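[audit] Reproducing an earlier prediction to check determinism. Same input, same settings, fresh worker. If the tokens differ from the archived copy the diff job will pick it up downstream; this log only records the rerun itself.
[audit] input (155 residues):
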Amino acid sequence: MVKKVLFITIAVVLAGFISLQFFQPAPNNAPVTANDLFHHLEVPPAVKNKLQASCYDCHSNQTQYPWYNKVAPLSWVIADHVKNGKEEMNLSEWGQLSKRDKIGVLSGIAEVLEDGSMPLESYLKLHKEARFSAEETEAVTQWAENAMEAVLSAP
């Protein structure tokens, strides 16, 4: 009797898990447009590579998904992180921002790197390449400060 109840319970849980796989969120991988940050600001190659590796998955329209994004409910968690990240800052929409918002984004990039609050620890656990060294933090922070000056002096 116990074996039968256990078997039925496992079968129901497994069927539920399998059925969840048919309900996946829409991917966040639109083509790069002229609004992207890299089309508007000069970005040294090392800084560009670091921003793409560490920020673009959650803060752009070009998420590079890991293999486990195909597994619900992980796919829902990832989609929620990306949605929240894009609400805070979407580097793919840079060209549509006001000058004030651009300054805020650049200032925010420098701030979160200096205080270590970004990238999120949960992201870094699975994306070691996203971790910033002291030199990378300094390079990106310096670039952000220089970019603020460029934005301020632009017409």
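[audit] rerun output stored. Observation attached for the diff report: The chain has one domain: 26-153.
[audit] end
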